UniProtKB/TrEMBL annotation, chain A:
GO terms for cellular component: cytosol. One of its GO terms (biological process) is tRNA threonylcarbamoyladenosine modification. It holds the Pfam family TsaD. The lineage of its organism: Bacteria, Bacillati, Actinomycetota, Actinomycetes, Micrococcales. Residues 199-226 are annotated as: Disordered. InterPro entries: ATPase_NBD (IPR043129), Gcp-like_dom (IPR000905), T6A_TsaB (IPR022496). This is tRNA threonylcarbamoyl adenosine modification protein YeaZ. Residues 29-135 form the Gcp-like domain.
TrEMBL record, chain B:
SUPFAM superfamilies: Actin-like ATPase domain. Keywords: Acyltransferase, Cytoplasm, Iron, Metal-binding, Transferase, tRNA processing. Its EC number is 2.3.1.234. Fe cation binds at residues 115, 119, 319. Binds 1 Fe(2+) ion per subunit. GO terms for molecular function: iron ion binding; tRNA N(6)-L-threonylcarbamoyladenine synthase activity. HAMAP family: TsaD. Its cofactor is Fe(2+). Substrate binds at residues 139-143, 173, 186, 190, 291. The gene is tsaD. This is tRNA N6-adenosine threonylcarbamoyltransferase.
Length: 226, 359
């Protein structure tokens, strides 16, 4: 499976049965349209794979800043079309939640929240419950992903790259996870956690924008005379 | 690769049209366009975020439809071309990311192409398959107002003049709102103006004063440039004066007088640029090329100087993928190097960059 996420950093991963074979992750959060296609090309070439070797494409559907998020989604959808592969979508925050699930279990955090930077002094967030079965940690989202000010984040242990951004306004951050961005590698692992338990992945790759465009229907035009 | 008659897909997403065109050599196989224009009507202008969202949803269906319409497969393509600028950053980014994905998936060479030069590339799709010598171009749309000299479409394109503020189409949209007419403003004002007196109001002709124009030997700072922002304000003052006096606005007369000012300035500057730069054929492009008065006046005044004006069918004047494919096809035929997949979209790509060189 080829996975892509562009909700925060831009990342690509190749995996088989949840095992990540190779991965690419940018450091910055503003080069998605430049970085993704070369990364896909390089990972595929290094692994000696072509599109016919893949079973599916997986994309993180956000939430994330709009332009970067679209770059990942259009890349994933287009690769799926060109290679005639199914394209699956998973909420990007689920990737980060799956990543921290072992730590959350170890810390006794049966419920926690993952937050990432939504810019404009707001955070994207989603609440999760975590437990463990014979296959490993299982995360269950508690409701839909949301966007809002730090004060709106529920008083649960708070993981992720957004947790430390507003220390004065969000006091329940779990320290040590400031570089935890949703990644394609974790997305692939989170997806395997679903399919290995006999459940289907969604084929809905609609972007989780969570905000409308800023455009306002204009009232009367500005006056040229007073 | 077939370089004599290359099969090329062109991708366009610089504004509110998701365009996919496919050409074989200079033969147009399909021109598939999905527009988000209806979603912008209530705002009176293109909203970049809404256009960008529409591109994401339209892209794969448009590619599928174009391939079906042309009766070809992705495997058969010789190259892919995509508009990389100028245009709206977020909108460009969707087409660029998608084009790169297609290039990666198919292994086909990718050309990052200049949107404005692509408008001129439409001229390659006519029966002759060649551009005339001494070609110039007048591009007028909601986002652009430019006069170009095109000595060689793949290697030598020069910007002679451009608007320094609003595009002409943008001025039409804004004035249409002032007059209570519909969006897009171009067709609405063109229609209203037919019943109006173009001399009813003496609206300003932007950048036509001597200090801007200079002379052919000693050109001023804006000899071929245009400005429509002051004109829009002048129209607003007239409309507000009627409102203040509680009198009905003479919409037809205002529309006709406004349109006459726009058309007069564009035609005057275009003729000047053509005659002073050896341009012997003028190609018109952009959505405002559909404007009846602009076509009429530019054609008549160029005709006085023996300069024929070529106006492609409207579907090839407005933004489309076919023009991108046409230019891409010519670049392939001339053996130009593809751009590769590491470039970035450039909202301000200069017209002198016909295709982005490989990194």
């Amino acid at each position: 499976m080829l996975s892509l996420d562009s909700s925060s950093i831009a990342s690509v991963a190749l995996s088989r049965d949840g095992e990540v074979l190779s991965r690419f992750d940018t450091v910055d959060t503003r080069s998605h349209a430049e970085a993704l296609a070369p990364a896909v090309h390089d990972l595929m070439a290094e692994a000696g794979l072509t599109g016919t070797d893949l079973d599916a494409v997986l994309v993180g559907t956000g939430p994330g800043p709009f332009t970067g998020l679209r770059a990942g989604l259009v890349t994933g959808r287009t690769l799926g079309f060109a290679w005639a592969l199914p394209v699956h979508g998973v909420c990007s925050l689920d990737a980060a939640a799956f990543h921290v699930a072992p730590e959350a279990l170890a810390a006794g955090h049966a419920e926690f929240v993952v937050v990432t930077d939504a810019r404009r002094k707001e955070l994207y967030r989603r609440d999760y419950r975590v437990h463990e079965d014979e296959l490993g940690p299982v995360i269950t989202p508690l409701g839909d992903p949301r966007v809002g000010p730090p004060e709106d984040v529920p008083a649960l242990p708070c993981y992720g790259s957004g947790a430390g951004l507003y220390p004065d306004r969000l006091s329940h951050a779990v320290p040590g996870f400031s570089d935890l961005h949703p990644s394609a590698a974790d997305l692939a692992r989170a997806a395997w956690a679903i399919t290995s338990r006999g459940q289907e992945l969604s084929t809905d790759t609609s972007p989780l924008y969570l905000r409308d465009s800023d455009a306002k229907v204009p009232a009367s035009p500005k006056r040229a005379t007073r | 690769m077939n370089t004599a008659e290359p099969l090329v897909m062109g991708i366009e997403s610089s504004c509110d049209e998701t365009g996919i065109g496919i050409v074989r050599g200079t033969e147009l196989l399909t021109n598939t366009v999905s527009s988000s224009m209806a979603e912008h009507v209530r705002f009176g202008g293109v909203i970049p975020e809404i256009a960008s969202r529409a591109h994401l949803e339209a892209f794969v269906p448009a590619v599928r439809a174009a391939l079906h319409d042309a009766g070809v497969t992705l495997d058969q393509l010789d190259a892919i071309a995509v508009t990389s600028g100028p245009g709206l950053a977020g909108a460009l980014m969707v087409g660029v990311a998608a084009a790169k994905a297609l290039a990666v998936a198919t292994g086909k060479p990718l050309y990052a192409i200049n949107h404005l030069v692509a408008h001129v590339g439409v001229g390659l799709l006519d029966d002759r398959g060649e551009l005339p010598d001494g070609l110039g171009a007048l591009l007028v749309s909601g986002g652009h107002t430019e006069i170009l000299a095109v000595p060689d479409i793949t290697s030598d394109v020069r910007l002679l003049g451009a608007t320094i503020d609003d595009a002409a189409g943008e001025a039409y949209d804004k004035v249409a709102r002032l007059l209570g007419l519909s969006y897009p403003g171009g067709p609405a004002i063109d229609k209203a103006a037919k019943d109006g007196d173009p001399t009813a109001f003496a609206f300003p002709r932007g950048l036509t004063a001597g200090k801007y124009m200079g002379s052919a030997e000693n050109p001023g700072p804006h000899r071929y440039d245009m400005s429509f922002s002051g004109l829009k304000t002048a129209v607003a003052r007239v409309v507000e004066a009627f409102d203040a006096a509680d009198q009905p606005v003479p919409v037809a007369d205002v529309a006709a007088s406004f349109q006459e000012s726009v058309v007069d300035v564009i035609a005057r500057k275009t003729v000047l640029a053509c005659t002073e730069h050896g341009i012997t054929t003028l190609l018109m492009g952009g959505g405002v090329a559909a404007n009846s008065r602009l076509r009429e006046v530019v054609t008549a005044r160029c005709g006085e100087h023996g300069i024929p004006v070529v106006i492609p069918p409207l579907s090839l004047c407005t933004d489309n993928g076919a023009m991108v494919a046409a230019l891409g096809s010519r670049l392939v035929a001339q053996g130009r190097q593809p751009t590769g997949i590491s470039f970035t979209a450039d909202p301000g790509l200069p017209v002198s960059t016909v295709s982005v060189p490989a990194a």
